[in-house]
């Protein structure tokens, strides 16, 4: 009986210590608009920063740029006179107006997240830590974006890390 009570107390303690999380539905995006659901990304608030835990499938294998964008929309919008995937999301979230792309632990856009790795079977399941983001409330009302290419976390040789086209997006509610 005593062991059972200790186990029950431990379980209650663990539940009360459970970190706050939110879930973001992520869809494929194209110049035609928002497409099929690819999965979700859960975001957990920890003492070390926000942890993004993807559960995505149907993606191209490799490294992909992963960012928070300014606006809470994944809709296509015009760019240089042509429809462009998830352009309504705006640019990288930069509330401090740094005007520069950088490492997730650096002094650039707060929307700069570690790159997301997609396995050969098209799945992204490896969590990433955003150490400068501390509170879930600060990212609500923006969009989570996955780009076609990798991200070198610099503006050279290509602007915004060279991630290229927007391929998946989710509104952070």
From TrEMBL:
Keywords in alphabetical order: Copper, Metal-binding, Oxidoreductase, Signal, Zinc
Swiss-Prot/TrEMBL catalytic activity: 2 superoxide + 2 H(+) = H2O2 + O2
Bound cofactor: record note: Binds 1 copper ion per subunit.
Region annotation (Disordered) ranges: 71-107
Domain of life: Bacteria
Source lineage: Bacteria, Pseudomonadati, Pseudomonadota, Gammaproteobacteria, Pseudomonadales
Molecular function GO labels: copper ion binding; superoxide dismutase activity
Coiled coil residues, start to end: none
Gene3D superfamilies: Superoxide dismutase, copper/zinc binding domain (2.60.40.200)
EC numbers, comma separated: 1.15.1.1
Similarity annotation: Belongs to the Cu-Zn superoxide dismutase family.
Segments forming domain Superoxide dismutase copper/zinc binding: 39-172
Cofactor or coenzyme needed: Cu cation; Zn(2+)
Record-given protein name: Superoxide dismutase [Cu-Zn]
Alphabetized PROSITE patterns for the sequence: SOD_CU_ZN_1 (PS00087), SOD_CU_ZN_2 (PS00332)
InterPro entries registered for this protein in UniProt: SOD-like_Cu/Zn_dom_sf, SOD_Cu/Zn_/chaperone, SOD_Cu/Zn_BS, SOD_Cu_Zn_dom
Signal peptide: 1-19
Summary of the function given for this chain in its UniProt record: Destroys radicals which are normally produced within the cells and which are toxic to biological systems.
